[in-house]
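Protein record

Derive tokens from sequence
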Amino acid sequence: MKKIIILLLFSLVVFSSYATAAALSLDLKGTYQDVAPANSIEGARGMQVDTTRKIAYISGNTDDSLTAINFTEIFNGGPLGGFTIFGSQTVSAPLGSLDGIYFGYLDTATNIFYAPSSTDDTTSWFNVTTGTFALLNDTAVDTAAAGSQEEEYDVTIVNTATKKWLITGGRVDDYVSSFDVTNPKVRPAVTNSFNDAAGACSVDGMYNLINIPGTTYVLVAATVDSYITVLNVTNAGAIACIGSGYTDTAAAGSIEGLQYMHYNTSSNYIYTTSPTDGYLTILDASGYISGTISIVGSVGGLTTPVSVSNVYTNGSNKYVFVGSSTAVQNITIVDVTDPASPSIHSIFSEKSGTCVYNGVYSL
């Protein structure tokens, strides 16, 4: 049995999954909903999960909230709806702004959450060891040229030999920038920036930034140009594009309009979607050192797919769950046992009642 956490626009939902060679079913284990501070998750987009402490950190875009929900009781087989609030913070202006928060990065090594504000064009970080969410520092508001964080949706952290770098993504100006947060209590100035808005190496309109664990490489989902770009961050914080990444905007293999990626560390595969063309595409990123990303397999027939879960293994079968941004095709379960030939296993949909899946943005 596996536990699956699904983040909707207004709800956190937990299912358990049971699979056989013939079928996979989802059983509802609990839901959480709150649409007003404190503890709001209204307009929820991103979710970072501390798997050790069993806490889900949820970015509530509408109410400028970061809310953490403990799901230990449900994970351990407790009663339906066994959620507890671990902590919550709502800030709508600098310092510490969470205004328009989409995603963010949870550094489980330090219990620090790095939160981008798409409205105030700054990044703030909080100590989330306890539920008080103490503000440690932030970057200066920046909306132009090097260091721009204008309308940023996501950030990531890169650990080099002696430094910890906050990597930001300004969507309007197409800048990826580095800030030294080795000492999280010192407010950093921008160290270096990378800018490219067309073709190979594009970071145009980026939605999602992923650090390949244990490396200094960052995957960037350039939504406007439908590119996955590979960047490298040096110990001095310099950012450079590596290779030509991956793009495809038609039929099998399409990532047109991609928003989110899941990187599987055991296989070096990227699982991503094309909301425009309705595809889930699996890419081999084992050549990231040279910036080489190649297609493994792809399956179409999905409706506005945006989010992808990690890979769930049951016996010899492997599955990913794909979330839709509409209520047309809510959660599609895709069999990825053979990554070269993925196939739609089933569709899980509920348009009324306890859980209305009208926007599944994180799995």
Q: What stands out?
A: DSSP finds one helix and 30 strands in the chain.
